[in-house]
Design goal:
about 300 residues, 10 strands, 6-stranded mixed β-sheet, 4-stranded antiparallel β-sheet, 9 helices, binds (R)-mevalonate, single chain, alpha+beta
């Protein structure tokens, strides 16, 4: 029996602008994972089961679409291995909500492709795995920057610039984030497509917004590397305002951001493609509980804590 998994991710800075060549910073959320169990079968047989999957508890994604996406991930892995088929019963169990900005698609694909490679006794190295998951991301999202697959495959905080070698970000002083789910599912493809339309219709207004987001990501990298957590919060909130200007926030996300800031968070922003999904807020040991309660009172359906840089 082979067991693999891959983590969720959150984007700390730079979503959307990263599609246009600006830098972004993202980190894995190791406590929230997609897992795959692959049981080699004695006869040629391929079955894929979803077990207790958050994948199917989602109104915006049809079960048939999910099964098709899983089948396709297996196909991509087999093609890379030059194998016609694999005899196996494959169970996918993901706790990462779909269409919520946490990289569910990339994590499921990474765990699945890893499992097929191991099942065939030819495990993929990380670079190849990253490429294969990126292929799938392209299938689902059209023009992905590649940040989601990179973070879930390498499981490290990354400073990411499209088509440039991956740089990991050393976390000098660990910091805690609350990740709050707005409860609204919002497919990445739609938000990314709408930003593209906005960009094409008004490049003169949108380009400076994208550049300001990129500038924030550069400053944030310096702050993270210097262990200057206080500066990070301000940058997060500024980043959220620029995402509002790109029209990818939503009343639910704005309410959560406001609630977190009013309750004492050092900064807050939507994370991922937006329009719904999750937001993040920077907290410390003193205000964490108060911010968590404020987020729940403001409509969050789930709040989880993650410490970035914890060993
Ligand atoms: C989605 O997690 C992040 C976006 O920037 C899209 C992408 O980078 O492919 C919105």
């Amino acid at each position: 029996m082979i067991i693999t998994s891959a983590p969720a991710k959150v984007i700390l800075f730079g979503e959307h602008a990263v599609v246009y060549g600006q830098p972004a910073i993202a980190v894995p959320v190791s406590s929230l994972r997609a897992a795959v169990i692959l049981d080699p079968a004695k006869r040629p047989l391929r079955e894929i089961h979803l077990v207790a999957a958050d994948l199917l508890r989602n109104s915006t994604v049809q079960p048939a679409e999910v099964t098709q996406a899983l089948e396709y991930a297996v196909e991509v892995a087999l093609r890379a291995l030059n194998l016609p088929d694999i005899g196996a019963i494959i169970r996918v169990n993901s706790h990462i909500p779909v269409a919520s900005g946490l990289g569910s698609g990339a994590a499921v694909a990474a765990a699945l492709i890893k499992a097929v490679g191991m099942g065939a006794d030819r495990p993929f190295d990380q670079e190849v795995l990253n490429q294969l998951v990126y292929e799938l991301e392209k299938q689902h999202h059209g023009t992905p920057s590649g940040i989601d697959n990179t973070v879930v495959v390498y499981e490290k905080p990354v400073y990411f610039v499209r088509d440039v070698a991956i740089e990991t970000v050393p976390i000098t002083a660990p910091f805690s984030l609350l990740i709050a789910d707005s409860g609204v599912s919002a497919p990445t493809k739609i938000a990314v497509g709408d930003v593209r339309k906005l960009y094409e219709s008004d490049q003169a207004r949108v380009q400076p917004i994208l550049e300001s987001i990129g500038q924030i990501a550069r400053q944030a990298r310096q702050a993270i590397e210097a262990g200057n957590t206080a500066a990070l919060g301000v940058l997060m909130t500024q980043n959220h305002q620029l995402l509002q200007a790109l029209r990818v926030s939503s009343p639910e996300l704005d309410r959560l951001v406001e609630a977190a800031l009013s309750a004492g968070a050092a900064g807050a922003k939507l994370s991922g493609a937006g329009r719904g999904g999750n937001m993040i807020s920077l907290v410390d040991a003193e205000n964490q509980e108060c911010v968590r309660e404020a987020l729940l009172a403001a409509g969050a359906v789930r709040v989880i804590v993650t410490t970035v840089g914890a060993s």
